[in-house]
Design brief:
GO terms for molecular function: precorrin-8X methylmutase activity. Pathway: Cofactor biosynthesis; adenosylcobalamin biosynthesis. This is Cobalt-precorrin-8X methylmutase. By secondary structure, this protein is of the alpha/beta class. The protein contains nine helices and six strands; from the N terminus they run αααβαβαβαβαβαβα. Helix 5 links the parallel strand 2 and strand 3. Helix 6 packs parallel to helix 7 and helix 7 packs parallel to helix 8.
Amino acid sequence: MKTALNHPIVEQSFAIIDREVGKHQLNQREYAISRRVIHATADFEYLNLLKFSPSAIDSGIAAIKSGVPIITDVTMVERGIKGLVAKTFNNPVIAAIDLAKTADPGKTRTETGLLKCCARYPEAIYVIGNAPTALLGLCDQISHGKAMPALVIGVPVGFVSVIESKQALLQLDIPQIVIEGRKGGSPAAASIVNALLVLASYRN
C-alpha cells in the first residue's frame, strides 16, 4: 500500500520486508501495521507477536478520524507520532508522564499521569510503549468502568510486570493491539500509531 505519507526510502524498505516475509496469514491492514513495526525494529518476529482484537483497527481508524486525543505513556512515543499526526488528522497528543511532576504514593510517575488522563479523556486512544505500570493502571480503570478507550495499544517492553500487564489487557473486552511476550517498546508503539494514521488517510 503506497501513499504520499511514506518517504521513498520507507517504500524501498517495505519492498525488502515484503520479499523476506513472503506468504503470511495476516490480512492487509494487519500486515501494514506489522510491516511498519518490522521496519522500525528490523525484527521479523513481530509478524507473529502482534495480536489484534477483531475491532481494533476499525475502532482506531474511526477514533483517529473523529479527532480523539492520543495518550502516550512517555514522551518518546509522543515524539514518534507527532510529525505524522500533524500531517494527517491533528489529534491532540498527550504524554501521560508530563501530567505528573511527582509520583503518587505507591505508583510510578507514568502511572500517576496515566490515571489523570483516564479521568480527563476516558475514551481516548491509549498507547503504552514503555511502562507496564501504566498499562496495569489503565486496565484497572477499564475493569472498573472508569475508562472506555477507543483503542489500547499495549506494547511495553522489559522484564518486570511486562507480560502480566499484557495478560491483564488481553482479558478485557476492549479494542486492543498487543505485542505478546517481553518485546515491544516506544519505537514499536509509535510505529503502530503511524501505521493507523496512514491507513486512516488511505481510507478517506
